# Entry
Amino acid sequence: MSLADELAARLPAGTALEFGELRLSRLDDGRFEARHRDDADTAGGLEGIDSVRDLRDLAKSDADGGYRPLKTAPGLKRGWRTETGCPREFLARLDAIYPGLFAAWAAYAKGELPPVPLRRTLGRQTGMYRLANTIDDAMAERLRRELCDAGCLRQIAWPIDEGDPAETITAETGHLPLLCTEACTFAVSRARELAKVARSVSHGSRVTSAEKSTPHDP
Amino acid sequence: MPVSKPDSALLILGHGSTENPDSSQPCWDHAETIASSGQFGSVHCAFWKEEPSFRQIWPMIEEREVYLVPNFISEGYFTREVLPRELELTGPTTRRGDLVLHYCDPVGIHPAMTGLLTKRALEMLDGSARPEETSLIVVGHGTGLNEKSTEAIQTQVEAIRAGETPFARVLDAYMEEAPYVADWRMLTDTPNVVVVPFFIADGLHSYQDIPVLLGIESEPTAAASQREIFRQNPHRFGDRTLWYGSAIGTDPSLAGVIVDQVACFDEHYHP
Ligand code: SF4
# Structure
């Protein structure tokens, strides 16, 4: 079964699913619709958006015009809806807002997307990110709390250390989880920042603002 | 060189940015162009600093044969180290289970880039100046980045010179190493100068830094007016006239270069 068929099968006519800040629904005539979940009960006045490109643009910035490089950060704009009869097109439109997240859930649910422990992700880094893996477990917990829990809607499936049990994520009825099976580029950058601060503290030096900023790799 | 690969996917690999919302746009634009041509079963993009990331991309791709084309300007740290590591590539062709991955050359080193630079410079002049009275400057970053971009630009400039260039002079210049683009008036002796940035996307360098170095802006422009910078051509400096364009990677012809890299891969490796 293709991913688009799988999406259609998970969303039979007349049903709805919550997917992050999205509300996906299948109309009685079989057409697919997505909108912001906070607009679920809005009857009219929503702007129709009917292309992948325009949806990608929508997801690019928040209501104040700020850039959203992390697509699963809360703050998706409201006031729009998108509708199509084609499951493949519907999947492409969802991918414009949450890139790859339906595919990730589908693969994970079949046991085909094993989570990658944080240490393995950090340990793989080279160049200026090599330092990232020197964080201790307390710093790793802090990273999860301050970056992931506070600023991202994904549910974390990765453990910190190799050998730690990975949390099993299950879908609540009416929900498609936004899944995180491997720490993202923001987490790697944050680990590097924490490592730098720790290193300068242990060396007794102060961190200059230039050192705190994260220049482009390398 | 069109290809017909309805059973293969094309994956365009970009850098992306956590700060510059325009960084990934050329990748998406080229992907859309190629997808609408129907040459591949599907066309995807993945990024180092945006989503979908290199690590997230695999569940999205349903074809079992994938051509990966780095949308990078040169060979270097990214194409040789970061991309193979993040994508778990082991050589030109990687077999992983039933998945076959072909890792093509980056777009910036394709020979077609040479003609593209000339085409773009002529388009910018738009008949308003004679190329034989014009110098073409291809500008890059220069030192500081662990990429062979300087070498890539030199190769392009030499190739343009070796061909039948309509321009009086063709030269390379850099933001951070000699010959400095800030010295464009001393580097050239023609009344007209056209400057093309050899970057994959527009960003702070092309919107802000290079315009200041060229003297067409006195200070970095505000974010909202970034694209305006390319609409103010030409700029007059006494008896000299300067044209400045957006990054070469934003040219729509890059879509063709990406597909050509797939054809080149097949020709070379006969997968
Ligand atoms: S690591 Fe995962 S959960 Fe944490 S911010 Fe990145 S994407 Fe979100």
